[in-house]
Amino acid sequence: MDTAAPDKFAIETSALTRQFGHLTAVDHIELRVPYGEIFGLLGANGAGKSTVIKMLTTLLSPSSGSATVGGFDIIKSPGDVRRRIGYVSQLLSADGTLTGYENLRLSAKLYGLPRAERNGRIADALDFMGLADSAHKLVRTYSGGMVRRLELAQAMLHRPTVLFLDEPTIGLDPVARHMVWDRLLDLRRDYGMTVLITTHDMEEAETLCDKLAILHRGRVSVQGKPAELRRELGTDATMDDVFAHYAGGLIHESGTFREVEQTRRTAHRLG
Amino acid sequence: MKRFIRESAAIVEVELIKLIRDPTELVSRAVQPVLWLVVFGQVLAQVRGIHTGQLSYLAFITPGILAQSVLFSAIFYGIAVIWERDLGVVHKLLASPAHRLSLVFGKALAAGFRGLVQAVVVYLIALVMHVSLRLEPLAIFAVLANVMLGSAIFATFSLIIACIVKTRERFMGIGQLLTMPLFFASNAIYPLDIMPGWLRFIAQANPLTYLIDALRGLMIIGGESVHGYAVDFAVMSVTFTVLLFIAVRLYPTLAE
Question: What is the mean pLDDT of each run of 10 residues along chain A (271 residues)?
Fold first, then answer.
């Protein structure tokens, strides 16, 4: 059943809520992300960023509320949503025991790219991400930045409408981080992709994002353009000030054991 | 259907590439059947304490040892799934439009191919030990088909456990807890009719028993399937279908 919504927003949520037992991880979130925008979701560990992404990528069912992605309802049409999204998880999901090319070929098959187009798309994606020379090397020999670019290549292979990136630059050195940013900006420019990115990195948020929402204890505490948010706090305010003000200053204090463990594991694998 | 085949084949292909690139696990798993057949089988054959009809004890337990290899190899498949979850691979697979059934069936089929390697190992050991094996192509083909089905059953069962326990530590404990009872409550190393009634009852509900029963008839000269091949196949097929259905429901919870 085609339940496509009017094509105004690439992502639209209405009172989106997720509870785990008595804990409300995401509490009546309202987001509207226009097509072609890079939208940042910020918040301390445990604020609910990953839970929002999991619901929007159909990995987790909402407890209540609704959302559409690319015009499709995440509950009624999860298959249609999945066909229109790319997803890079916080964890390093590229398979280290396969080559870059093999990782991409798996994605191409799972996303149903026609056989005739498959190799061309893979070659384009490898070129785009600057990985053509390493295509046939095992991913476990890649640097952290190369792994992240490969994951972006996997996520963009089928030309998704919306790209979800859960802390894509966590654990990367500054050079690798800037390379990932450049590729994201290229993706938006060349393919008009909408990007929803979660991050802790205020420089990343300011450099990349057209608009931000800061989550605190599962609720949106503020939304706006980075410059506007800074101005609201004062002429000298930095993004760190904005984050500390709206995220409750809990950046080092919250988050579950599992979240911290995953973050550290990812950072460790990135070297 | 075409989509289901394409997606399942993609999963199988990746698993086979990994297996070929790093066959360490298969080599280490080959040690166990050697020990069971060469040491346990030979020694117990001298005792002549277990009545195995017209079959020598070694011939009697050869299909049981193959089934055991299949079981032990497949039952720890869930560890790899938990590892994939920890690495985020499961999240990526589940965020793709691939059908959940294709993903789970692909995993089960890949486990089936792993089982074939165990079959080759056991055939080679059995030939060296002069076990009277049926070597007609049709019989060998049927053995391999049963081995694949058996592997798929226990790998899917393992995946279900992985989806429930979600951590490697818990899985290891439960895996150890399950394998030996499944093995001993079967007709692998002694016939059903010498078991006490309660154990025979459990053994008859154990899918391993039907795998061994089919293998005994198909693999060994003079061996026979007590239940009949149709019953063995039906029990295993129904078991696989039920487990597949449960696994498809539970697999997405790994990404939550």
Answer: 60 94 92 94 88 95 95 94 92 88 95 91 90 93 88 91 89 80 86 90 88 92 90 83 77 54 58 51
Single pTM value for the model: 0.85
Helix (H, G, I), strand (E, B) or coil at A267: helix
Residue type, A202: M
Q: How far is CA A53 from the centre of its chain?
A: 7
Q: In this predicted complex, what is the ipTM?
A: 0.83
Whose structure tokens read 């057209």? Answer: A210
Q: CA of B95 to nearest chain A CA: how many angstroms apart?
A: 6
Please report, in angstroms and rounded to a whole number, the separation of the first and last CA atoms in chain B: 28
8 Å CB contact of B87 and A93:
yes
Nearest-CB residue to B10 (from A90, A106, A265): A106
Between CA A131 and CA B254 the distance in angstroms is 31
Q: What is the pLDDT of residue A214?
A: 93
Compute the distance between CA of residue A20 and CA of residue A18 in angstroms, rounded to an integer: 7
C-alpha to C-alpha distance for B154 and A231, rounded to whole angstroms: 61
How far is B251 from B256, CA to CA, in rounded Å?
10
- Give dist(CA B95, CA A82) in Å, integer: 6
- Give the closest of B14, B86, B97 to A82, CB-based: B97
Q: What value, to the nearest 5°, has the Cα angle with vertex A53 and ends A47 and A56? A: 135
CA distance B24 to chain A (A): 14
- Quick check: A89 contacting B, CB < 8 Å? yes
Report d(CA B206, CA B158) in Å as an integer. Answer: 15
